[in-house]
Amino acid sequence: METDIFNLENYEIFDLTHTMYHRMPSWPGHSEFTVQDLKILNIDGYAVKKISMNTHHGTHIDVAAHMIEDGKTLEKYPITSFIGSGVAIDFSNKKPGEPIESEDFDEYKDVIHNNDMVFIHTGWDKKGEIIRSICIYGHI
User: Fold this and answer.
1) CA dihedral (97, 33, 126, 107) positive or negative
2) What is the Rg, in whole angstroms, of the alpha carbon atoms belonging to the chain?
3) By C-alpha distance, which of 130, 107, 116, 129 is closest to 1?
4) Per-residue pLDDT tens for 43-89?
5) Which of 4, 56, 69, 72 has the fewest CB within 10 Å, making it most exposed?
6) pTM of this prediction?
7) Containing H/E element for 14?
């Protein structure tokens, strides 16, 4: 099904972005996310901030080039690759260290269709421990 990105009246749109903030968690060994005031409104008459980050801070997309030499880079994907029908699967019942296995999706085989985007809800976003979980257990 070709997605008409300009006619969204039949779609429910979900914003998946996480709020970014000074010293938010970073992947171990990567630079931290920082926000620094360069100009302050009540002193300088205008506000300017310096943001320092790497490509893994905040909500982002990893494409083939992230792990494969000469892999496809983001600008080579059409924007329609990131718009489409999807299904959300709730695995928030998983305990810390308990992996999500391929068999866990068996009960959803009738709701996940070919070319669907599959969004996995783990609940870890509310715990603020995603980075720690990945480092300790190797996965969320």
Assistant:
1) negative
2) 19
3) 116
4) 999 999 999 999 888 888 889 999 999 999 999 999 888 888 889 99
5) 69
6) 0.63
7) none
